[in-house]
């Protein structure tokens, strides 16, 4: 059953269209990525999902319920980590946790709360306003986890986190996913998206430009980098490779064709090549290819 269903949603601010006709679904228990350049409409989309701002059109369903009609019921089952964490600065961290549990009508488990504080190295006695950026983000993470949500929505959750806490966070998130929790992750850190998400949605200039299965697509696309005084552009393009970057003595291609044909071609070219590498396309390559293609079409 889909946990997130966006159907033709849009958002306009006056004449400016921030989100334009976006549709996709996220299934229960999925670890789903949502990526795009700055200003693409990621945060606006999530703000509409959470009913922080009203959509200008389309329909939103979370956990099988329409938003905003069932806004309160839905939010009780959601954990949210904003990109910019702002809580009352004079409140102590322990009080923020208490208020979070009260909102969800839960007593909470003191042992579980202590475990999270120990895991993320949080001092619950400190005032929120005295915390560093990273420690504020850690408090927001715990607030998103302690009420056992069915859906966790995160906007740049690892900003300010050191590598140790980063690794611990994703270990917790994988455990939650294994328990059936759905995780929606927006991040500029493409490596973490690639490592943990099974599917991703690409958004640019408010428009959805693709939803792809990472477990399939990048295994089928190869990236070939060749170095030579005379680059074999025409030969590579003849077998179906696409040149995505070229300098005086280096060219990078993407290729989705027959591997035997590729290696035969590279073998024949080997006397004139200084170096050649073949690798699976990673998410950064895919992101840049989609972004540059859309930029070229726009220009």
Keywords for this structure?
299 residues, alpha/beta, ABC transporter, ATP-binding protein, P-loop_NTPase, ATP-binding, Rossmann fold, ABC_transporter-like_CS, six-stranded mixed β-sheet, Alpha-Beta Plaits, elongated
Would you write up a description of this structure?
Residues 4-230 form the ABC transporter domain. With 299 residues, the chain is an alpha/beta fold. The chain has 2 domains: 2-213, Rossmann fold (3-Layer(aba) Sandwich); 222-280, ACT-like. Chain A, domain 2 (Alpha-Beta Plaits, 2-Layer Sandwich), CATH 3.30.70.1150. 36% of the residues lie in helices and 29% in strands. It contains 11 helices and 14 strands. Strands 6-7-8-3-9-10 form a 6-stranded mixed beta sheet, sandwiched between helices. It has a 4-stranded antiparallel beta sheet with strand order 2-1-4-5, covered by helices on one side. A 4-stranded antiparallel beta sheet has the order 12-13-11-14. Strand 4 (57-62) and strand 5 (65-67) form a beta hairpin. The protein is elongated. The chain starts with a strand and ends with a helix. The relative contact order is 0.13.
